[in-house]
Write a structure and sequence with these properties.
The chain has about 350 residues and is α/β, with parallel strands linked by helices. It has 3 domains: about 10-70, no CATH class; about 120-165, no CATH class; about 190-345, 3-Layer(aba) Sandwich (Glutaredoxin). It is built from 9 helices and 9 strands. A hairpin with a 2-residue loop joins strand 7 (about 300-305) and strand 8. Helix 6 crosses helix 9. The protein is elongated.
């Protein structure tokens, strides 16, 4: 009987601790035994070694650590490890005090579906030759013997021979394919170039005179500007030759001795986006293009002779289009050529 025997103090303490643990974590899944039953079992196992862990106490400690987890049956699977996606061997639902395992390294194997482009054989040969040529040059420079220098010259001759063949085939292709000959658009021989320049000057002058009522020039001037004294009569000659009106804008309010009355700058240049007041400078103005009753732009086309036509580029801005023509002292021919290109040529079409 339990009452007729004395309970060892260490066993009594363990039994009391077990009872308190089971009472404080009253998990519904745990069915703990009463303290008296536990003491009776310990009394029956009196001969058991004290070094062996007490099963009931071990179960109580497990319940204290995980009160919501019921003890697994004998046939249940062992606790999951970190490798299968659980946390610290238990399904806690979120990280507690455990360190998150490092993710497995990504595979270094390339994408099997990736497109592998092989270099042409000619590119491989050229790269190998360039490398060998550079090595031969460095050897000849660092150790300039007759054999090394001769070897480098012979290797360089390979490139010279191929360049000569390329140049010969290039000109033969140009001769036999007129659509590839750029000199038909912009001649380079002296006779053809003189005729081209004369024809272009005639077309340009006729065009500028024909559209002079739709364009104008703003001349940015300063009374203290030395180059302006040279530029003013040139700009006046351009205006008289092509009939293009010129308005002088004075940055300091000074009058111009050639044009007389000027327009003081009261912020016009800044409103046009001209923050730098460099003098002398020219701005090309174009009036907005006319719009038909159907809403289409009416393009101005000038017949310049021999069936050739030059069209004025349309201006879609309601207040007109303003283009910075240039700064500094320019000749009449230079001003006319720049105006002709900006007013009639699309970018990239005049080369």
């Amino acid at each position: 009987m339990l009452g007729s025997r004395k309970l060892h103090p260490s066993r009594a303490f363990r039994a009391a601790a077990l009872a308190l643990t089971l009472l404080s974590f009253s998990a519904p899944a745990l069915h703990a035994q009463p303290a008296s039953t536990a003491m009776a079992e310990e009394d029956q196992d009196d001969d058991r070694s004290t070094s062996q862990p007490d099963a009931a106490l071990q179960a109580g400690e497990t319940a204290a650590l995980s009160p919501d987890t019921a003890p697994a049956d004998d046939g249940a699977a062992p606790a999951a490890s970190v490798d299968d996606g659980t946390y610290c061997g238990r399904q806690l639902g979120s990280w507690f005090y455990c360190e998150q395992p490092s993710p497995p390294p990504r595979s270094q194997v390339g994408d099997p579906n990736a497109l592998h482009v092989r270099k042409p054989r000619e590119i491989v040969e050229l790269e190998a030759y360039q490398k060998a040529l550079e090595e031969a040059r460095q050897v000849a420079i660092w150790r300039p013997t007759s054999a090394n220098v001769e070897h480098y010259i012979r290797m360089q001759k390979v490139a010279l021979d191929k360049s000569s063949l390329f140049s010969d085939l290039w000109r033969r292709a140009i001769w036999t394919n007129p659509d590839l000959d750029y000199t038909l658009q912009r001649p380079t021989t002296q006779i053809a170039k003189a005729e081209y320049d004369n024809e272009r000057s005639s077309d340009r002058d006729l065009f500028l005179r024909s559209v002079s009522d739709q364009v104008g020039v703003f001349y940015v001037y300063s009374g203290t500007c030395g180059p302006c004294r040279i530029a003013s009569p040139i700009i006046k000659s351009f205006s008289d030759r092509f009939g293009v009106s010129v308005k002088v804008i004075s940055t300091d309010g000074a009058e111009n001795p050639v044009f007389g009355r000027t327009l003081p700058d009261h912020g016009q240049l800044s409103s046009w986006g001209i923050d730098h007041k460099v003098t002398p400078a020219l701005l090309l103005f174009q009036a907005p293009s006319h719009v038909s009753s159907q809403g289409a732009l009416r393009q101005t086309v000038v017949n310049v002779g021999d069936g050739r036509q030059v069209a004025l580029r349309p201006c879609t801005q309601a207040r007109g289009c303003l283009t910075y023509l240039g700064a500094g002292v320019m000749s009449v021919e230079d001003i006319a050529e720049r105006s002709f290109i900006l007013l009639s040529k699309e970018p990239g079409s005049d080369y």
